[in-house]
User: What shape does this take?
Amino acid sequence: MIALTFILRRCVMLVLVLVAVSVLTFGIVNVLPGDVATAVLGDMASPEMVEAVRERMGLDRPLDARYLEWVGGVLHGDFGRSLQHGQPIAPMLLGRLGNSAILGLITLGIAAPLSIALGVLAALRPGHLLDRAISSFAVGAHAMPEYVIGLLAILCFSIWLPLLPGSSLMDPNENPLNRPEALVLPVGVLVIGMLAVISQVTRAGMIQALGSPYVRTATLKGLPRWKVVLKHALPNVLPPTVTEIGMYCGYVIGGLVVVETLFSYAGLGQMMTNAVSYRDIPTIQAGVLVVAAAYGIGNLLADVAALLLNPRLRG
Amino acid sequence: MNAEPMLAMSPEPATLDVTGLSITYGAGPQGLKAVRDVSFRIAPGEAYGLIGESGSGKSTIAYAVLRHVPAGTVSGRILLNGQDVMAMSPQTLAGIRGRVVSMIYQDPMSALNPAIRVGEQIAEVIRQHRRGDRASAWARSVALLGQVQLPLPAEIAHRYPHQLSGGQQQRVVIAMALACDPELLVMDEPTTGLDVTTEAVILDLINDLRHALGVAVLFISHNMGVVAQVCDRVGVLYAGQLVEEGSTAQVLRAPRHPYTIGLMNALPTIDRAADRLVDIPGRLPDLRVVPPGCVFAPRCAAVQDICHAVMPTLEPVGTGHDSRCHERDRLERLLPAVAPATASDAPLPAKADGGRPLLQIVGIERSFGRAPMLALPFLRRRTPVRAVDDVTLDIAPGQTLAVVGESGSGKSTLARCVAGLLRPDRGDIRLENQVLSPLVQQRTRPQQRALQFIFQNPDAALNPHWTVERIVGRPLQLYGGIARGAALRARVVALLEATKLGERYLERYPHEMSGGEKQRVSIARAFAGDPRLVVCDEPTSALDISVQAAILNQLRDLQQRHGTSYLFISHDLGVVRHIAHRVAIMRHGRIVEAGTPAQVFGAPQHPYTQALIAAIPTLEPKRLRDGTAGRLRTADGMIDA
Assistant: This one.
């Protein structure tokens, strides 16, 4: 019952956040100097030409009317036309989103269990060799931005040891799963970035749980160590870790932008980078909205998972 | 392998035989010698109590029996059924934990795993040690929950710990400990976190089970009344040493060690008249550098020259009664006699009762869980809980009004409303017929000065970054107008001397002081502004008995000197008996009974008051487990509901 109200409340909050994000992106992009008309025509256009284009694109109408029209379109799956390609944004966006989702989900699927496992291993004997190795790796990886890790990965595995393609060079409509070898390096870079954070969160939670009175109770019941760790400590560490993974969704999306650009992977991130450099404002708006929605849904799912894992919150 | 002949050799087989146990935390000569050369035996089916104040090493010993000493170095021998616990392989050790010896903990809420159903927490012990299938282990788990007298055990088994009350949680922990029919139960302060009525039923349960199952018990407690209810024999620990040992009647009724005698004199009870408690001066010795003589010598009232030079050994003073004291046979002459309660001394001398009340609490109401500020969709409105429900009380000048209640009774909420820390929903606080603003920051300086507060936990109430001089000097500057310099320092020193601390404490920080010393600083701070009324919210419940006596005496002395009134909040009827001029019993936010201590404790009218008084664990031999227990069970049921 409490869980249901919680989920409903969070859904309402998500919708409110998306409305706020849409207002902000639409507003900021339209307030910035150099509007869409200038962007289309370039710097050499005469004021008359700009005015004509503004009128044709409806940019002379008031901001709120334009916003409502845009939102109406979005609700019907119409994000407008790309200035760069002159084509409707929605189909392109969908394809790119799918590609990015494949990259993101594979990353999550590998990194979440792996980082929890590493965090637990490190917490078993804090300060000992294994913990130091895992923690040093995590801190080191966390200190390095994705593009550094990515470039190092390309250097190692496609230039010195030409095992894997350093660039996806894929057609936007191609299914990335058909060429799994092109996925290895981008996923690897994202996984390393995520391991760094989540394994340390798990480690800290696990150390705390292992020092708790209920773990002492379990030990003094005569349970073997593995059972104490996996059955008694881990279930109490998972909810905060899962919440943390949800927060990390935003980081993964940010990482996607870098990694997709680096590996020429035709995903949402690459589309956004291109749109920004071409000042393709409708595409930017659509992209930001989709990213915000993905982040919000990711967080929501993580919170629901944490809720289901925690009997105290379940009510 | 060594264990077998040893068992055969010993005259009578003991369930637990501890010999020369020493436990040191930290290495080298600077190690903290928490337990030193402790030896005791527990026969099958016997209940042995270890009494001690904080720092005595009693819990360390309890956990050492299960070889759970994470940071310490252990020497000596612990034989459990003739097997040396310290020499066991990890597998053997895991095999006896939960099966031969099991533990009951102080705080059941944190001892139970919050993420696992209580039935499963019991069933897994059974599966671990008895290799039964899931269904039979679960069935036994439900049966155990029934055996510890939980209603609807089959349903309770499916619950999580947070869905149970404190008393129910402790029953679950007991059921878990009994799961594999152990031969020894180690209980570490099993009722300390519980309300007195819940404590009484849990003690009854422990006694019933102990007699029914014939299990031996090692019972750790600081509460002599509780120990008297459960134990056959008692050992008294001081600073890691056993100083006295004997039958419960011998040790608690006719103690033969100055420390035990001191503890008895410091214990506030409701049947003793309001005579002065005798505190034990001084504090625990530094256990890193143990003195060569008797560890208790610096605090002992019967101390002789030999005591500082030679450590006494445990010597018999009667059949099965030992005392570690050089002067064990001359104590009656050496110890100053405790003044018996005389008519002139008790009840508390009070200022004239005739005048107008100093403080009036008029129709105070306060609820929690009201509708949230922001009405978001899907936010459910929770039904508010009435913490304080229409309370009206008066406090006369120079007198103490004690408000007594169990947890959740609303007594602390009432204190916070009086102090202006919480805004009451309805009602007035009047000081000398003047209505005070509901919140302290809206009250005038003279009003703030007139009404001060002493909190339960001095650790949280004193700024850790301030020296004592600054802590006590602050209200002087605020209310007294003494800006700084020598005059301020002189006043602070005077206040510290009045609370028996003195000038050497000026530069100290809170972490450099013991709990009792910190609470004295809180008292000095409260009295700095020369208040008319001090709200004392459980001021001694975090302190040891010997220190509590000193603090209570201190509060009485200050009251007589300054004519200050107290609103004294407590759960401890014995403490209240010694400090209060009037007593109000609070339950579910309402005052159920009020009167003088003699009326309330002598002839309680309300059934709840009667249940509270009956529930207090006294030093008397075990209560008859029929009539009283039945009544208490009703009280427990009402509270657990």
